[in-house]
């Protein structure tokens, strides 16, 4: 990975804008989307500080051909098409980092991309504000690694830059397990807040607190059947920790519902319901979330 080459961030949504703004002081960064723009981005930090970020925003055909790395930050359902639009314009051996929720695209993109591929899972909370703004609603932590534990040096380099930019990150060899952990967090939070149009922190209140607990019970059975080791402290502790840390956040699925965009329902709930089916586990609450969450 060449330091002088730019980092491309493909996907100008909340996560893409957050990465671009945080990395702006550390790396040459280019944000790639459907439309180019010369307007600066505006970041509101969790501490309430406003930052102005003059980051180039270009289309895929305008992207630098020799980037150091591509961070794919689109939603899961748009990931493959977005990457295909960029692939024709950049070096095919460029390293790729996948930031998608769920567990739908990580496996196929890891296998088909010519360059090194890492997966990232993060609990950073962010939401867009207008055409050019992003609110960093809560600090979290990011883990980065290859599905089979390869490319540790690359994961370490990227995690180091992210940490220095204010986004705490750690390279890891067990990213597959951590993706399942994030899947559990997303399943317990996103569909509920999207259905009831509430912020994450409102899940602490009645009647939502009991709904979260019931979903955690189903998730625990599914994860045990899949052989996914629980996090330290257990599933419930992990999920409530994220809810507390992102209490003011509007979850990505809620943002999609409010904007009448497709959601990540399939990427988040699909793998869990398929696993429940494989193991003969009844999951009525997850089934209900699927039925009541727009696709």
Report the helical percentage. Answer: 40-55%
* Fraction of residues in β-strands: 15-25%
**Overall pLDDT metric:** 94
Number of helices: 10
Query: How many strands, which pairing sense, and closed or not: the largest β-sheet?
Result: 8 strands, mixed
**Low-confidence parts, pLDDT < 50 over ≥5 residues?**
none
Major sheet strand order = 5-2-1-6-7-8-11-12
- Compute the CA-based radius of gyration: 18 Å
Report how far apart the termini are.
37 Å
CATH architecture of the largest domain: 3-Layer(aba) Sandwich
The first-level CATH class name of the largest domain: Alpha Beta
Looking at the structure, what is the overall shape?
globular
Secondary-structure map:
Elements: E1 7-10, H1 14-23, E2 29-32, E3 41-44, E4 50-53, E5 57-58, E6 69-72, H2 76-87, E7 96-98, H3 106-112, E8 117-122, E9 125-129, E10 133-138, E11 142-145, H4 152-164, E12 169-171, H5 175-196, H6 208-226, H7 235-245, H8 252-258, H9 265-278, H10 284-292
Parallel strand pairs: 1-2, 1-6, 2-5, 3-10, 6-7, 7-8, 11-12
Antiparallel strand pairs: 3-4, 8-11, 9-10
Helix pairs in contact: 5-6, 5-7, 5-8, 5-9, 5-10, 9-10
Summarize the structure.
The chain folds into 2 domains: 7-173, Rossmann fold, CATH 3.40.50.720; 177-292, N-(1-d-carboxylethyl)-l-norvaline Dehydrogenase, domain 2. The chain has 295 residues and is of the alpha/beta class.
Textual characterization of the structure:
The chain has two domains: 167 residues, Rossmann fold (3-Layer(aba) Sandwich); 116 residues, Orthogonal Bundle (N-(1-d-carboxylethyl)-l-norvaline Dehydrogenase, domain 2). It has ten helices and twelve strands. A hairpin with a 3-residue loop joins strand 9 and strand 10. Belongs to the ketopantoate reductase family. This is 2-dehydropantoate 2-reductase.
């Amino acid at each position: 990975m060449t330091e002088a080459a730019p980092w491309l961030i493909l996907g100008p949504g909340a996560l893409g804008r957050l990465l671009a703004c945080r990395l702006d002081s550390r790396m040459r960064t280019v944000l790639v989307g459907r439309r180019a723009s010369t307007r600066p981005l505006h970041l509101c930090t969790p501490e309430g500080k406003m930052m102005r970020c003059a980051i180039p925003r270009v289309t895929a055909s305008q992207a630098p051909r020799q980037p150091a790395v591509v961070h794919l930050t689109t939603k899961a359902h748009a990931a493959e098409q977005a990457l295909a639009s960029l692939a024709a314009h950049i070096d095919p051996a460029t390293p790729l980092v996948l930031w998608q929720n769920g567990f739908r695209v990580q496996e196929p993109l890891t296998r088909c991309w010519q360059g090194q591929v890492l997966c990232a899972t993060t609990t950073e909370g962010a939401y867009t504000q207008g055409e050019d703004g992003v609110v960093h609603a809560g600090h979290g932590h990011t883990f980065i690694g290859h599905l089979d534990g390869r490319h540790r040096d690359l994961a370490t380099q990227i995690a180091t830059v992210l940490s220095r930019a204010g986004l705490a990150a750690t390279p890891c060899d067990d990213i597959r397990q951590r993706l399942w952990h994030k899947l559990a967090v997303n399943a317990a939070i996103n569909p509920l807040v999207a259905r009831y149009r509430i912020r994450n922190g409102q899940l602490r209140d009645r009647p939502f607190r009991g709904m979260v607990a019931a979903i955690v019970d189903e998730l625990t059975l599914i994860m045990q059947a899949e052989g996914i080791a629980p996090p330290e402290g257990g599933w419930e502790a992990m999920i409530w920790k994220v809810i507390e840390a992102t209490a003011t956040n509007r979850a990505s699925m809620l943002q999609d519902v409010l904007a009448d965009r497709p959601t990540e329902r399939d990427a988040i709930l699909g793998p869990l319901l398929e696993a429940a089916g494989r193991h003969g586990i009844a999951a009525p609450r997850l089934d209900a979330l699927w039925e009541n969450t727009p696709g």
